[in-house]
Amino acid sequence: MRTQVCIIGGGPAGLFLAHVLHAAGIESIVIERQTKNHVLSRIRAGVLEAGTVDLLRQYGLAGRMDRDGMPKDGTRIFWEGKADFWIDVIRWTGKRMMVWGQTQITEDLYAARERDGGEMVFEVENVALHDLDGAPSVTFDRHGESQRIDCDFIAGCDGFHGPSRMAIPADIRREYERAYPFGWLGIMVEKPPMKEIAYAYHSEGFAMASRRNPMLSRYYVQVPSTDKVEDWSDDRFWEALHRRLPEHAHGEIETGPSIEKSIAPLRSFVAEPMRWGKLFLAGDAAHIVPPTGAKGLNLAFSDVFYLSRALIAHFRENSDRYLDSYSQMALRRVWAAENISWRMTKLLHVFPGEDPFDQKIRQNDFDLLAGSEDIQRAFAFEYIGLPFED
Length: 390
Description:
The protein is built from 11 helices and 20 strands.
């Protein structure tokens, strides 16, 4: 096979890149390790930055989102022993976020890819990248048959465990990581969510009330990294959640049997550079953020914005200015997202082994946020998502 861009990974990053390139008349083939149904079965959060919302609208992917999504104008913070606090994002930025699930976005992207006749190859194995500084190609096995795609460029959108990042030579690749000593135990219930997404700090640990749609709620509590899902019955979860949220919020929580329960480990991770020769990384292949800042999916779309612009300039204008600056531009936004996600995680979680000094610093951080409009404005600016660079 031959194409202009071979995209490894059929998740949101890879599919959105293929969609944008198709709109510009650039050919691509998407290869994916799993089946389409498996990709669509992944339940992920979907708090979208204003810039992500704009991109979905710009490329004709916002119909269902604008009809069924839930606008988000700010963030509610419960703090043990203190009054509720509201970060008014729309006041400080004039922009609005959107709660719209990653699963729905992926459904729309697959529908668009199939409508446009774009080529997708599922259930591939033994993916390997070749000649990245020359005439690149990708080889793989499918149903026992070996296949090869020759291309001009490779987009590695294959997640943390995919082969793309590891194709960058070890003496060139630099990796930065922070693993957190706790996870988020999350459950899904078929009940109406709280009226606002809310974070909670409590001396027992973090808690969160989120939403997927008007009849599907997602709740989280911080748990030790050694805990197992089997350790947590539904009753134990609801008891912990109620302890960590203020009493006046309990009436907004409709409990019920969980339809999904899992523990997500928290990690911060960045790989540099995001380009090597004709290979470009995007999404989780290059970076992971703790979910506290709701930045993961948004960073994937940010990468695709920069990468698609670079590829379009190459093929349409014979200009490699954006290709050459892709890694630096993308990484500036990546590190900004890592920063706010780390600070929110540090602010809202209890860390094992911390002492009273750590607790006092955390308390002061919250008091400064709650008491200073300047700090609130700065926080809102980061939370809504930094603007894309020209």
